[in-house]
Amino acid sequence: MSHPPLTAGAVATLFRNEHPSTSLKPVLQVLEIKRIQVNNSAPAGQPDRFRLVISDGQHYQQGMLATQLNHMVSLDGNVEGGKVATTCIIRVHEYNINLLSNRKIAFLLNVEVLTPPLGHTIGTPVNIEPTGAQPAPSGGGPVAPAPHAPYSASPYNPPAAFTPHSASASAPAPAPYGNPPRGVPTRSVGGAGDEDLSHHTVYPIKNINQFQNKFTIKARVTNKSAMRAWNSKQGKGSGELFNVDLLDGEGGEIRATMFNEAAKRFYEVFQVGQVYFIKINGGPGNVKTAQRKFSNIQNEYELTLDQNTVIQPCFDDAGIATVQYHFTVIGELRYANKDAMVDVVGIVSNSQALGSITARNSGQQISRRNITLIDTSGCSIDMTLWSERAEQWDEHIQNPVLAVRGVKVSDYGGKTLSSVGSTSMELNPNIPETTILRQWFDSQHGNVPHMSLSGAGRAGGDQGGNQMGGAGDAARHTLGEAKDRHFGVTGAPSTWSSKATVVRVKREGMLYYDACTTPDCKFKKVVPASGGFSCEKCHMTIERPHRRYTLNICISDNSNDMWATCFNEVGLIIMGVDAETFAHAKENDELASQFEAIIAEATFKSWNFRIRAKEDEYLGDKRVKYAVVHVEPINFVQESRNLLAEIKKYGV
Length: 652
Hints:
mainly beta; 8-stranded mixed sheet; elongated
């Protein structure tokens, strides 16, 4: 079988770190693959790793495949779909050289499979290790590790070619410019004492992994959480912690957390927007697998900074962005998992008044505010701001663009967003998305039809939804959505519109009541009195009361049905007769056929309903009651236009 030539001298070049990891793309042969299983002390969910032996035909070297490439490995002989297998040929697009157990290991970050297994070893490669070089076995047999002498290099010595924004070890420190921010120290903090980190070789954040224990990074703090208490679920300890999000000049991001004494020591040192050198001195657990459910940082690892960590401000921050977003389109949030952490950007279309809730555990009052975001996807979503963010929000700002980083997705009452301690927000940020959103919103004069991903659970008012008009232009939802999203369960009323059909009018119970005929009274407690009837509210005596509807009807659509109360104005429209006529037919046996005719005429007619839901409690039993507050005939021409507009949103 013909095969592409191997890159001569590539292994020696890798071993000496003579090229950046992206400029050299060597073609190599895989001689051996071995699975390395994680031990019992590793964090739950940590994947196994694969150790490789790679060869250029002259030398071979130990390598390690990045965990995100584990799916490319074939151990069972199935090599369909470009699998990495013994004796196959690969092209290495990106790599990293690190010391592991005092041996140089090539960490393969991006590879391309060029051929299936050849079944034999190309050339007679020998071990590139300094001593005890041995020929590699042919045919992909096990490769015995060669004995080797300890290197004279330091335990960590990353290649300078990986650090385009760093100074070399012999170069002078960059001259700082400007004045340090208030409260930021001008020298290193932590470790055994003063140490100048500006001469250290800087390591890219994207290359950090658990096989390194000593390195220095240069990064900007893009977000800083508040100091908060923590308690072990097993009762093994408690204390304080905070975390910072770090961004370097190559776009690499990572979260760093500090506990107890380290948290107290470094809390005032780290300031948002400032750049720092951070030296990790090899403490246990400094690099660990990230807990992605608490962060949307694009890194599979996170840092723990301890008392041995050295931190030094750097006032030469050119080339490092202030923040890096990974936006999710609002329309795509309908598919997001519960508790996922996302970045979003949108126009603030609605801002509710400041409210508060009582914390279940502490009993403290916590401020909250709900705002609504919309974007060019034609969808909107509600976001809850808590505590200081809720209090500091200016509800009078007219439709600003808001970029939010690290907000949590909730599925209570549809899809909603909730700020957390590490959430950061920026009004009208200087990014391309701001221009796009502003031009889109202004071109429609702020009248943007949209479909809401959020349902109940908001603090009253119309439920955001598909603004299709009708029933007072309330947000459109099906009856099934209203029930599934538990509209009205918070105690505050929720209002929406539905297109539905009356399928039943309840014949039993109180269908109407006697009301006062005095203008602006209409009170229902009217009792017989001498000379007529007396109203308990206005204390007027009237000749006879006026009948008013209090109907119970069952309405239905394609998703569900619902029993709702209709009062007089709505009852007049649905029944087609006033309550006096309806009551007269019901109370006279000889008019039974007329009564049934009125009922029959009202059923199986479709309307646009505006419905209000509110939770009620009776004798300790809580339930949601529904009331029709407005009804109007269906405008089929307008309905057709609305449906066409909805279809266009999906690009059909």
